[in-house]
DNA sequence: TTTATAGTTGACAGGATGGCCAAATAAGAA
DNA sequence: TTCTTATTTGGCCATCCTGTCAACTATAAA
């Protein structure tokens, strides 16, 4: 039997990832460190919006940042989040049948 | 490079799972078929609330139902969603370090 | 046919999310 | 110091999510 609190934690983690832009951010960061500006170019939305998505991911311990001059670089703190992509792909495939 | 639409689909799927009650439902259904009433007893909330969570999961092709008399039984349609539990546990563990 | 049981659906309220703009901050360059 | 670039934060609004109650539907039993 699994503890209710565990489900709560897992739900919070899933919620943090359950957004198109945040998934795209995680995918990018899984390849290499990126600045906020680079991520905005990819997502094509307001810089402040990207910054807030990153703040949320950081609050959940998924990413971390470091400043280099005026630029802030983000990196993946828990690379295994990428396994979610594998899971999701698998479910979508299984569902399609 | 991954298609933007793929991220959209994955995000929708994650959103469907990103709720404590729905995770608990999926976990229960991974063990055996359950009626709405049984799930309500486990979740301890309004029957209509459970019914809506189930409707949402069904709309995403994650569960399916069958009626037996006045009772409706739900079952997991894509058992591989359980891999999300493994992923989530792994991330929470990696994050804890 | 009436009654009881099991679920679903609609309406509604409160709270959480997401996105943009504008203002604030941080750091380097002039 | 002042200016510029990069990013964060606060305010605001629109939208979505959750949960509850009440009303409705479906099926079986009396």
First-to-last CA distance of chain A: 31 Å
Residue-averaged pLDDT of chain A, rounded? 96
Report the major sheet of chain A. 3 strands, antiparallel
Class computed from helices, strands and strand pairing of chain A = alpha+beta
Structural overview:
The structure is a homodimer of 97-residue chains. Chain A has helices spanning 4-17, 20-31, 36-43, 47-59, 83-96; strands spanning 34-35, 63-68, 71-76. In chain A, β2 (63-68) and β3 (71-76) form a beta hairpin. Chain A is an alpha+beta fold. Chain A is 63% helix and 14% strand. Chain A has a single domain, classed as Winged helix-like DNA-binding domain superfamily/Winged helix DNA-binding domain (Arc Repressor Mutant, subunit A, Orthogonal Bundle). Chain A has a three-stranded antiparallel β-sheet with strand order 1-3-2. Chain A is globular and about 50 Å long. The interface between A and B is large, with 39 and 39 residues. Chain B binds a DNA duplex (30 and 30 nucleotides) through residues 19, 21, 35-37, 45-55, 67, 69-72.
């Amino acid at each position: 039997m699994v503890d209710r609190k565990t489900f709560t934690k897992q739900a919070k983690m899933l919620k943090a990832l359950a957004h198109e832009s945040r998934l795209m951010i995680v995918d990018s960061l899984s390849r290499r460190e990126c600045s906020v500006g680079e991520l905005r170019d990819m997502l094509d939305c307001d810089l402040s919006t990207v910054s807030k998505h990153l703040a949320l991911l950081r609050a959940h311990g998924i990413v971390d940042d470091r400043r280099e001059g005026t630029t802030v670089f983000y990196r993946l703190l828990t690379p295994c989040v990428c396994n979610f992509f594998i899971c999701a792909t698998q479910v979508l495939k299984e569902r399609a049948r």
